[in-house]
UniProtKB/TrEMBL annotation:
Keyword terms of this UniProt record: Coiled coil
Pfam families: HTH_Tnp_1
Protein's name according to its UniProt entry: Transposase
Keyword Coiled coil included in the entry's annotation: yes
Coiled coil: 56-86
InterPro entries given in the database record: Homeodomain-like_sf (IPR009057), Transposase_8 (IPR002514)
Organism of this sequence: Paenibacillus etheri
GO biological process, one term: DNA transposition
GO molecular function (one): transposase activity
Keyword Coiled coil assigned: yes
Length: 106
């Protein structure tokens, strides 16, 4: 991190952010701190003409696809974590020698 990028590259990253790519995705892709990108956006957004903001090119489509994959991954990890917790609880219940539901039936 902390690498210096030329003004043209900075502006391209700002344009990608203005086109809808999340700062976190851009930060990981370019290995730049997200706050640095936010600062560039604040500094440059008012001076970038709308016609220079990219849309629907392959690069942006790939970034948007990456963003969607990351969101699905995060959701899957959450669901998987919940399922693992449920399994752990069930395993613990099975380990008990005399579960409560058997005591009441005697």
């Amino acid at each position: 991190m902390g690498k210096r990028l030329n003004k043209e590259t900075q502006l391209n990253i700002v344009k990608e952010a203005l086109a809808g790519i999340k700062v976190g995705v851009l930060a990981r892709m370019y290995d730049i701190h997200p706050e640095t990108i936010r600062s560039w956006i604040r500094d440059h957004r008012d001076f970038i003409p709308a016609e220079e903001i990219p849309f629907a090119d392959e690069h942006l489509q790939e970034l948007q696809r990456l963003q969607e994959v990351e969101q699905r991954y995060e959701k899957a990890v959450k669901v998987l974590g919940e399922k693992e917790l449920e399994l752990e609880i069930l395993r613990e219940l099975l380990k008990k020698q005399a579960p409560a539901y058997l005591k009441n039936s005697k």
